[in-house]
C-alpha cells in the first residue's frame, strides 16, 4: 500500500508480531468498536502473507495497526 510501512516481524513463544503504519487519512475507514477483519485491512491496501490477524489497538496512535500470527505459520500451513 502506498504510504504505509510494515515492520519486520518479531517473535515470541507462540506468535510473531508486526505493526503496519498507515496514512492517518485512512484511519476513518477502520471500525472504532472492534478490531479490523482481514477483509477490512486488506481492503485498505495492506498486503501481508496469510495468517496475520489484527489483534490490538494502540489508542494514542490509531494509524499504527498491530498484527500477530502463529509462530511458524507458513511451515504449518504451506498451501496458503
From TrEMBL:
<dbReference type="InterPro" id="IPR000789">
    <property type="entry name" value="Cyclin-dep_kinase_reg-sub"/>
</dbReference>
<dbReference type="InterPro" id="IPR036858">
    <property type="entry name" value="Cyclin-dep_kinase_reg-sub_sf"/>
</dbReference>
<comment type="similarity">
    <text>Belongs to the CKS family.</text>
</comment>
<dbReference type="GO" id="GO:0016538">
    <property type="term" value="F:cyclin-dependent protein serine/threonine kinase regulator activity"/>
</dbReference>
<comment type="function">
    <text>Binds to the catalytic subunit of the cyclin dependent kinases and is essential for their biological function.</text>
</comment>
<keyword id="KW-0131">Cell cycle</keyword>
<dbReference type="GO" id="GO:0051301">
    <property type="term" value="P:cell division"/>
</dbReference>
<protein>
    <recommendedName>
        <fullName>Cyclin-dependent kinases regulatory subunit</fullName>
    </recommendedName>
</protein>
<keyword id="KW-0132">Cell division</keyword>
<dbReference type="Pfam" id="PF01111">
    <property type="entry name" value="CKS"/>
</dbReference>
Amino acid at each position: 500500500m502506498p504510504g504505509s510501512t510494515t515492520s519486520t516481524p518479531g517473535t515470541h513463544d507462540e506468535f510473531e508480531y508486526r505493526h503496519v503504519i498507515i496514512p492517518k487519512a485512512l484511519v476513518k475507514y477502520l471500525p472504532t468498536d472492534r478490531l479490523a477483519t482481514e477483509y477490512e485491512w486488506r481492503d485498505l491496501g495492506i498486503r501481508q502473507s496469510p495468517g496475520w490477524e489484527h489483534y490490538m489497538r494502540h489508542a494514542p496512535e490509531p494509524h499504527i495497526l498491530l498484527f500477530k500470527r502463529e509462530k511458524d505459520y507458513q511451515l504449518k500451513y504451506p498451501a496458503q
